[in-house]
């Protein structure tokens, strides 16, 4: 019998731990400064008073996270929407695997949509590299996040991956909690969403069943998240440019913190979530493959197919594709006004970034154009799609 204590170093906080954690946060000046940025209409005293009423994880989500998400949606989006929840059972737990565009918002906005539609919110996978301050760790663990340990030795990485795999299975099938995890480690920077096979290998590590039985039991639900305006498009462009031009360039914890904050406060336009059906079809076919490497590759491609197909393309995506490829192929998908607005948005965002202007613009366009390219790939005759 598995005991939850085996996961104490990675699991979310439970209700009995909440009062002590809230007391720590209220006493932390850095957290309160952060909270004041997120709730500019509230005073420090008002935030402290509201937090002091929190006694459980559900209290924290309903009294702090939901208002925060509503504030972000109201002030930085033109609305969020979701389709596909009718394919799911509210009494079942699922492993939501989505494209990864924003550090915080991908899971946060999915959870607010689940909450609004009377589904339980998910537990959230978050990399330890992002927990750069103790108060950040407290904050995310209060919000049902569990830790994915990063930057470990090879030996430790295997131990950590096995623990993580076991915990996800425990959360889904013992706690009956849904789980969100990104399809890759770190956000996609160039808009080309791909599932890492290493993620699937980690999920399999704790499995004692056959490949198809194990993954069917995880009830994987692919989710496509489409932002009209990527909140960190300029920061991503800068990062990709620096990786090209500076030998050994690496992001700093400060860069990650900036991305988290910018993701919450920058404009996003419309945001759409499209939820696929739980993956079960094709698993038996994948099971018959001779080489285990082929099985993980096939499952990754199946998830990618679902996400690429369900990704909602906005006018910006078509505009960027046409500009990048010097074509008018998709001009019926946008207006001259929409094109002008997108180019003004790009100029505004890249105006704060140093570097070769033309290359930065090209990188920026690629972020928005790659989802179009991925949908084009699905229509090619050699792509076996409808069977997936």
TrEMBL record:
Residues 80-225 form the Phospholipid/glycerol acyltransferase domain. Keywords: Acyltransferase, Transferase. The keyword Transferase applies. GO terms for biological process: D-galacturonate catabolic process; D-glucuronate catabolic process. InterPro entries: Plipid/glycerol_acylTrfase (IPR002123). One of its GO terms (molecular function) is acyltransferase activity. PANTHER family: PHOSPHOLIPID_GLYCEROL ACYLTRANSFERASE DOMAIN-CONTAINING PROTEIN, URONATE ISOMERASE. This is Acyltransferase-like protein. The lineage of its organism: Bacteria, Pseudomonadati, Bacteroidota, Bacteroidia, Marinilabiliales.
